[in-house]
Every structure is written in C-alpha cells, then in structure tokens.
Fold this sequence. Notes:
alpha+beta; binds alpha-D-galactopyranose
Amino acid sequence: MTPREESIHSRRLWAAPGRVNLIGEHTDYNDGFVLPIAIPLAVTCAGRRHPDDLVRVSSRQRPGEPVRLPVGTLRAERDLVPGWARYPLGVVAEFARRGHRTDGLELEFDGDVPAGAGLSSSAALCCATAVAVRDLCAPSVADRELIDIARAAENDYVGAPTGILDHAASILCTAGHALFLDVRAFRETETVGYEQIPFDLSAAGLRLLVIDTGQTHEHAGGGYGARRAECAAAAEALGVGSLRDIGAPEGLADLTDPVLYRRARHVVTENDRVRAVAETLRGGADPRAVGPLLSAGHISLRDDFEVSTAVLDAAVEAAEASGAYGARMVGGGFGGSIIALVDTAGADRVQESVRERLAGMGFGNSRTFEAVASPGAGPAR
Ligand code: GLA
C-alpha cells in the first residue's frame, strides 16, 4: 500500500467528552460567563477516509446498517436519516458548506455519555465528529471554527437551539482545569475570551459528584427555546443588545413584566456567581467556599428561571441535607443531572441519600459518578 492508500484505509480514533458546568447556566446565549469542566465520559469516533463521496455513519449504540449519503445531498436529505445520525452528518455538511474539503468518510461512534442527562451527549457526538473530520480532511480548521461547526450542526441541521457552552467545553477544556469562558469576548475577539483555571478538588479532600437522576429531558425541548425567547424579550424591553449588558439587578427596574424580570434576574445574578466562583478558584482559596454559590445558583434556576423539576429539587435537597457543601441542577434543566460538592469521606453517604430519595419518587435508576476535570476533544489516548 502506498502512504496515501494507507492514510485512506487505516482507521484512527478520536474522543470528545461530555461536560458539567460548575456554574453559569443559561448565560451563554445571553453573551455572559460559563465555567464548565470536561467529564471522563466521552463519545469516540473511529474514522477513515474513503476514495468516493459517500459519508457512512454508524453507532455501536444503534445496531443496524450504517447510514450512507453522498456528501452533496447531506443537507437536502436530512429528514430521511434517523435522529442520531443527523448530528454527525450535520457536522460533515457544515464543513462542506463552509468550503472545507470533505472526502468520502466512514465514521463509527461509541461512547458512554448518557443521553438526556444534561451532560451534553449530543455536543460530544458533534465534537467527536468535528475533530475527526478536521484531522482526516481539513487540518487547517482552528478550534474556534470547529466549535462553530459543531454548534451549527446542532442548531441548523438537527434544529436544537443550543448556545456555545457545550461545544466550547468539549473542545477547549483541559485535564485538571475548569474553563472560564466569557462568551461575548470569545465571539468578538480572536485571541482572548477564555482562561484555564486549575481545578483539583482531590488535593482539598473533596469530590464533585454528578448524579444523573434518570429523569430525561428529551421531551422538553420547547422549554429551552421559550427561555431563550424570554431573555431576548427582556433585553429588548431594556434596550440592550443582550442581558450581559446589565451589571446588577438594579438595572432591571424598568422591566415591568414579572416573568421577564425573574428570567433576567437569574441571568444577571448567575453571571455574578460565575465570576465569584472563578475568583475563588483562581485565588487558591478552599474550594468549599464555592458550595453556597452552587446552591444559590440552584435556587435561582428553580425560582427565577423555572427550569428545575421536583425530582431535581429533591436530589439537591437530599445532597445538601446529607452533608454536601453545595448542590445544583446542571445543563438546560427540565430533568437530567445534579452536581454536589462533597468531602471525599462523606461521598458515599451523600450518594446513598440522594439515591434513596430518588428511588422513593419512582426514579430507581439514578447513577452517580465523580466528575474529574478531564481532557477536551482530540485523538483518543
Ligand atoms: C444546554 C445548552 C447550552 C446552555 C445550557 C444551559 O446545555 O445546550 O448551550 O444554554 O443548556 O446553561
């Protein structure tokens, strides 16, 4: 085999992680701040080029024939392919739409990021595709564009109106760090907009537990779009480009609609909490100090933004009552996971108490794991 044939025929492996957001929920599409870490659960993509123009995608989680489409028809044919395959095909279509080279491809996916748990399994799928296609076909594409490509696949091809948080986290996060992302600065400048903040809880005798309640949020897509629209309406009523422009709740005094007021207050106070958590971690203070900010974030998501559920609230309450320094729902809401900051020595107690509480509500299949700040997307290690 010539070296060219070799590169076409041998499969290589990439991985892209899911994420949890320490703090900064529903701030990304308001041009604000977020602070995610990548988690040790990932989507992998085994891929190679083919000397034709067909894109073939298959998934170990969806046994059956691979989905095969010519590159040129990816956009037009999207409604004909199964839901899961729209994510990777959307990524390839977006590469092509932007004029990047895309050869015939074979992409096989596997992974352990639970779907519907608020841990960004769909962004992990898009980002695993994006890093694979970049390395196989278009190596000059920079990380920033890769994030845009992955997000565009979800927004325009799948029709999920997400912000930038999940894709930025999956691509940019690094092991042992939380990613402080200033969404506006990241959008508007080429060189700044994010910072890697050391995040090592084990040195402080702590753990961050992620508890997937088992209440999936897949049927609640409309709630997310409604919140986005409310935030846009609040910004318009206040005469600002985005809620990022409001520095403190006093700046919301002119909002007469009580619902829009509460939505906007969540965004303004959440941005403050992100900055406060980042400041605490940067300064090397005891990370336990972050706990009350996490819990305050939950209350704001529950009461002002109204994206929590009775199940998420109960899980947070049980975690706090059994010794967590702070706990909150993560992701878009309407189901999914919570995080809890706990002493290593007390982790089992918290886990067990949340598990029992959820089982009592009919959610006997909750799962707990530890969120250690893990590497972002790239060749699988
Ligand atoms: C979902 C979206 C993100 C972000 C979060 C809420 O995960 O995909 O863009 O808006 O909800 O913080």
